[in-house]
Each structure stands twice: as C-alpha cells, then as structure tokens.
Design brief:
single chain; 306 residues; alpha/beta; Aminopeptidase; 8-stranded mixed β-sheet; two-stranded antiparallel ribbon; globular
C-alpha cells in the first residue's frame, strides 16, 4: 500500500516489456490510455528483470474481455459473475520495496495471477486480471475506468504491505543496502464508505478477512494504533482485521463493490519469505476464492464445496 503514498519510487517504463510475452492461462485486461513499450527500451530493461525474476512473475498476453450483463450477487451464476482482480501498482511505479529489494508490483502480479487461475478453475470464467500501465496516480484512475467499463460485479485490488519510512531500519542483502522492519506483519482488508455500494463492499471484505483468519493467518493490527499517526485507520472488525480507508481512489471511484487486500508485509524479513512462497500464495488464493464463492452463493459458506 505504501506505494500508493510513495509516488517517488518510480522505475523506467521499459520494465513492462518483460510482462508482454506469451502466457496461455490468464488473459489480462490492460487499462486504457497506457503507453506501450518501444523496442529501443527493451534492452534497457534487462537490469530491472532481476528484481521481477526474484519472484518469477509469469509473462502475459492481451485478450479483450467478452461482454456480458452484470448479474446480481443474490442470483449469481459463477460462469457469468465478473470479478476484476486488480494488480496493485505498475511496472513503472512499483509500490513498496521489500526487505530484499523486490518491488511490490512483482508480488502483487504473481499472487493476482494465481488467484485468477484458481477462480477460473472453480467456475468463475469471467474473472479478469487487471494490469495497469503508467505512472502512479494516473494509473489509479485508469484502473478504475477499466473496471467500470467492464461492468464488473466485484473489484478486488491485490497489494503487499510495508510501513511508514520512520519505522525502517538499515541492513544489507546480498551486498546491497536495503531497509526492513520486523515490527509488524499480517494481512489487512480495506473498504471505503465513499464507495457507492459500501454495504456490499463491507460484506465481501468480511468474507475475505474471515477466510484469511480461517487459513490460520493473523491480521496487521498496527493500523488501529496511534503510533501510525496519519496512517491510522478505523478498525471496523477487531476479530478479522477489516479497516476503513475512505480516500483510496480504487475503492471510492469504482461503481461496484470494491475491496483492497494487503496480503502480508514484504518489509518484514520473515514474512517476505512466506509471501514469496508458492505455499502461502496458494493459501491466500484459496481463501479469497472461498470468499468469492460465499459472496456469490451464501449457502456455500455454510455447506462448503459439494
């Protein structure tokens, strides 16, 4: 999330070139108005591929989304229910940097890809991976416009957490200077009261948070603490870790229920390794998929998968 605030951490736009290779499982939607990477920039991106390669993010192809009417959650047909899974940040504006110098965008991309794969495997054929290009703040409006154009039934933005700069400590990893903070860890879920369907947003946020807890994960409690200063947020559910964050553009400007998930802290050295592991990513993808099923069919939450 701190990448939403720290617009200064910008890298060359050519990093996006490494994401435009063939990939046959997920067909992402690219937001409008995004600049394309020219061939002359491709070579310049080689030094940036090292960071993305640390998580082995799979390359992507472009395919337009099919059109369908928006079903209501009360009569949800999974094959028509459209959830947009938004990859937080962009290759040009990567968000927070992990304790081991891997950009948040790489973590977000890999987890979002796995989540969309899981959703499609569970029958949610209209699940869409949303990858946005461009600089930090303009990209926020682009992703909102893309989700609105898709007439999505649900919007979920995937992020990985950091801490305010004042909490950072110095260390070296593989001979390079870096920063870490082992003080906080855990996931968190955010909603905005300014979303046009706040009640439904909150309902889905509760489902996501409960599934995270059911998977044995703990939520990040620091956002409710005064030590966070201007980053302190109202905790709406002390049991599961749902917070209120009204100002987030991707939550308040989308015309459908919207939730932001901070999957875990990548500035915490121990948790960063967990977030990088396929096992933790699978746990989170399974939990969110279960939440989507329960949202689409409330009976599923009681009966479980048949």
């Amino acid at each position: 999330m701190w990448g939403i605030r720290l617009f200064g951490r910008i890298t060359v736009a050519s990093v996006a070139a490494c994401l435009l290779l063939a990939f046959g499982t997920i067909d992402p939607v690219w937001s409008r108005g995004a600049a394309r990477v020219s061939p002359k920039h491709a070579a310049a991106s080689k030094h940036r591929k090292v960071k993305l390669a640390a998580l082995n993010p799979t390359a992507l192809t472009l395919e337009p989304a099919s059109k369908s009417s928006r079903p209501s959650a009360a009569t949800c047909d999974p094959s028509k229910f459209r959830i947009v899974v938004d990859v937080g940040h962009t290759a040009e504006s990567e968000g927070a940097m992990s304790a081991r110098n891997v950009p948040e965008f790489a973590f977000n991309l890999q987890l979002a890809q796995q989540l969309v794969e899981r959703l499609k495997a569970e029958g949610f054929a209209e699940a869409r991976l949303l990858v946005t290009e461009g600089k930090a703040k303009p990209s926020l409006f682009r992703r909102v416009a893309a989700a609105n154009d898709l007439k999505a039934d649900l919007f979920l933005s995937i992020h990985h957490d950091s801490v305010p700069d004042s909490f950072l400590e110095d260390w070296e990893f593989e001979g390079k200077k870096s920063h870490f903070s082992d003080r906080f860890s855990g996931y968190s879920v955010f909603v905005s009261r300014d979303n046009p369907d706040f009640r439904t947003s909150l309902s889905f946020a509760e489902l996501v948070a409960k599934e995270m807890k059911a998977q044995g994960l703990d939520y990040a409690q620091q956002y409710a603490q005064p030590v966070m200063g201007r980053h302190q947020r109202e905790l709406l559910n002390r049991e599961t870790g749902v917070y209120r964050y009204d100002e987030l553009i991707v939550l308040k400007r989308t015309r459908m229920p919207a939730v932001l998930l901070e999957a875990g802290s990548i500035i915490n050295r121990e948790e960063e390794l967990k977030m990088k592991s396929p096992e933790r990513q699978s746990i989170i993808a399974s939990g969110v998929t279960a939440a989507v099923k329960a949202f689409c069919d409330p009976g599923w939450a009681f009966l479980g998968p048949m």
